[in-house]
Amino acid sequence: MTLLSVSNLSVRFKQHHQDLAALLDISFSIQPGERVAVVGESGAGKSILGYAITNLLPGQGYIAGGSVRFRGHELTSLSRREWRTIRGHRIAMIFQDMMMSLNPVLTVGDQMVEAIQSYRKVSYHQARQLAIETLQQVRIRTPEQCFYQYPHQLSGGIRQRVIIAIVLLLKPELIIADEPTTALDVTLQAEILHILKEICERNQVALLFISHDFGVISRICERTLVMYAGKIVEQGPTLGIINDPQHPYTQGLINALPQMALPGQPLNQIEGNMPSLTARPSGCAFHPRCPYALSQCRYLTPEFIYTGVSATACFVIEKMQTFNAESEVDHDTDI
Q1: What residues in the chain have per-residue pLDDT under 70?
Q2: Considering the domain boundaries, does residue 237 fall inside one?
Q3: Domain limits at 245?
Q4: Does residue 320 belong to any structural domain of this protein?
Q5: Rounded Cα gap, residues 103 and 107, in angstroms
């Protein structure tokens, strides 16, 4: 059975007497144990997607339409009480801001014991032993010492490992990680990614990994969703998308990676900026920044077409496919 199924999900925000679209008709699924990335620039809607799935939308945000099903059960209609049995225990979220995820006035041990005893009837001694064993699993060298420390006494890398350990204690089937390595240096980033991947593989835990960095997701995710202005514009196997990006936006993201520029030369960039919720362009939202935009891109919204191993929502790609198909027909006729 499919673990998570998102169908035509739309999210809107009420702001200053306006009703603004943040997500538009998002559809995808995740299988048990599968690792899926959501990638795009800031403002693309990546984090909002994670918050919508877990019913943690901020402020005046609300789900305007669509479905989110977890193991066949609809999540959008759950009550707050019902969500307490799902969030954390079956679907866990790792946030970008590590200090916001940990209570600054409680020790690591107190927070871990509280997490364990929230769903298991065990003694403090048993919970403590389980917590220390889990801290060892995430490769904290001095788990007993860490157990009695406060979050502010720990480095960023150790805090993130503690958060992963707490998530592990709850034994979720799906982890949603919202840019969990952004604030870490490259070495710590690689270690955290390795730990996450290892945990998912060992325990058959699915992962929805939110990031802006193709270099990061290539290390951990099997499949990728590329988002722009609240919509998915390309999706497919991660390595397939990285090696042969189809959508002009995906091409721009990959070309903007530092390693794609020649030494001593300026870094490549996508001209323009992500549109705000109040100024979303008509048609394909990327057309004002797209170097290949056609006339219909300005007023029509493209549907997904399959291009090799990925699916792409782009009129330019559709036109190229049509041209190639007609060329093959003409060639066959000539023969």
Answers
A1: 98-99, 323-335
A2: yes
A3: 230-263+286-335
A4: yes
A5: 8
> 331 lies in a domain?
yes
In a domain, 258, yes or no: yes
Predicted pLDDT of residue 127 = 94
SS3 301: coil
Cα 12–Cα 39–Cα 4 angle in degrees, nearest 5: 65
Nearest Cα neighbor of 219 from 249, 196, 245 is 196
Contact 194, 138 (CB under 8 A): no
Selection from 76, 79, 51 nearest residue 65 by Cα: 76
pLDDT for res 294: 95
| Rounded-to-integer distance, Cα 85 and Cα 67, Å | 19
Q: Which pLDDT does position 329 carry in this prediction?
A: 52
In the chain, helix, strand, coil percent, each to 5? Answer: 40, 25, 40
- Split into its structural domains, the chain has a count of 1
Strand ranges, E, within the chain: 4-15, 18-30, 35-39, 61-70, 73-74, 91-94, 174-178, 206-211, 223-228, 231-237, 304-307, 310-313
Instruction: Tell me if residue 178 falls in helix, strand or coil.
Output: strand
